[in-house]
Amino acid sequence: MNCPLLGLLPYEMGCHGMRLTDIALRNLQVRKAKVLFLIFGIVLGVAIVVILANFTAAMRAEADQRQAEQGSRILITPKTQRLSLAYRGVTVASGMTYQKELLSGGLLEELKNLPSSVNINTIAPKLLGQVEMDGGKFLVVGSDLKAEKTIYSYLRPQGNWPQTEDQVLAGALAARQMGKAPGSILAIGGKEFILAGVLEETGGPEDRFVFMDLGQAQAILGQHGSLTLVELLVNKPAGGELLDEIKNKLPHVEAALVQTEADARQEVVQRFSRFSLLVMLVVVVIGSLIIGTSMMASVNERAREIGVFRALGFRQKHIMGIILTEAFVVSGLGGIIGCLAGLGFSLALQRALQVDGAVGWNPGAVLGALVLSVAVGLAASLYPAWRAARLDPAEALRLI
After folding, report:
1. Residue 207 to residue 210: CA distance in whole angstroms
2. What is the pTM of this model?
3. Which of 36, 97, 259, 329 has its C-alpha lying 20 to 30 A from 357's C-alpha?
C-alpha cells in the first residue's frame, strides 16, 4: 500500500510493518550533533557517579581493614586516680607532682580470667613516671614494647623499634630536646640505655615520651609490680561486652573505650560517603534536567514530523514509544561509556592519590550505574514523550 504523505517524511519508510526502533534510530542519525552533546553529558555524569562510588568503596574497605587490624582499645586506670597530665587523652600526672594511686600487677591475671578474655588480642601494661635525664625531666613510659608496637602500629621510628631491655624509644620532641639521635646513649636512673629509634613526629602526646621496658621502668621508679594503666586491644564487636564485664567484675578500676586511629578514619569515610551521596544526587538531578530539556527541544523541533506520523495512523503510544526508545538508546550508550570512563579515571586517581583500598571492576556497581543512567533518561523523557503524543495532527497538516 502506498502512503500519500510519504514524501513529507525525513527518510524512507512505509505505512505498515514499520518498527519503532528503526524510526528512533534514524531520528538519532539525523540529529547527530545534538545526540553527541547529550551523550557527552550523560557520560560525564555517569563517570562522576562511578568514580565517587569506587572511591567510597575503596576508602571503606581500607578503613574496615585498619579497624579489623587495630580492633577496639580499652583503657583501664585506678578507680581513685586524679591526674592532670594527658597521656593519649587520659590524665596521668600534674606538673612536677605524680599521684601515688597505682594498679597492682595482679590485675593482668584478673583480666585473663574474665569470661570474654578470649576476645583480648593484646594486653599492654604501663608504668609512667618522671625521671631526670640529660639535664631535663622527661616522662618515661615503661611498657611491654612488643605489645606497644602492636597497639600503635601506625607509629614509625627513625632507626629501630627496641628489641632488648637496654634499648629505649624516644618521641620526636623528647629526642630533639635532649639532642639525641638513634644509636645515642641515654643515662636514665643511673643506668645506660641505647636509643634504638626516634618516633616520627605525630603532633600527639607520644612526641614527648621516652618508651622503655616495663621491668626497667619499675626498677628505676621504685614501683616493682605496680602499673599506672593497662591498655587492651580487643576484637571490635566484643569491645562493649568486655567493657561491661570489667566494670561489673573489677569495681576497683575505671575502664573506658578509646577512639583509635581506625575509628577516626571510619568517621572520615562516613562523612565522605554522605558527601558523595549528595554529589551523586546533584549529578542525577542535573542529568535529568539536561535530558528532559534536550528531549523537549527535540519534540518542539519535530512537531511537524510527529503530526505527520499521527496523520498516517500512528497512535499516541507509538509516538511515546519512539521518543522513549531514543532516550533509552542515548542514555544506555552514555551509561556504558560513562562506566568505562569512570573506572579508568578511578584507577588513575587511585595511583595518583595512593589509596590503599582496591579500586577494581565491580559488576554490581557498573550494572547499577547503567540502570540508573537508563532509568533517569527514561524518567526525564516521559513528559516530552507525553507532549509529543498529544500533538494535534491538524496543526502539522496546516504546515504542509
Report:
1. 9
2. 0.54
3. 259
Q: Among 236, 195, 232, 237, which residue's Cα sits nearest to residue 212?
A: 195
Question: Grid coordinates representing 195?
Answer: 636509643
Cα 131 from chain centre: 43
CA distance 97 to 86: 13
Give the separation between CA 22 and CA 20, rounded to whole angstroms: 5
Rounded distance, CA 177 to CA 193, Å?
A: 17
175 to each of 190, 195, 220, 285, how far by Cα in Å? 19, 9, 20, 56
CA dist 350 and 348 (Å) reads 5
At residue 270, what is the residue type?
Q
Cβ atoms within 10 Å, residue 164? 10
- pLDDT tens-digit profile of 136-183? 788 899 998 888 888 777 788 889 999 999 999 999 999 988 888 999
Q: Could you tell me if 144 and 214 are in contact, meaning their C-beta atoms sit under 8 angstroms apart?
A: yes
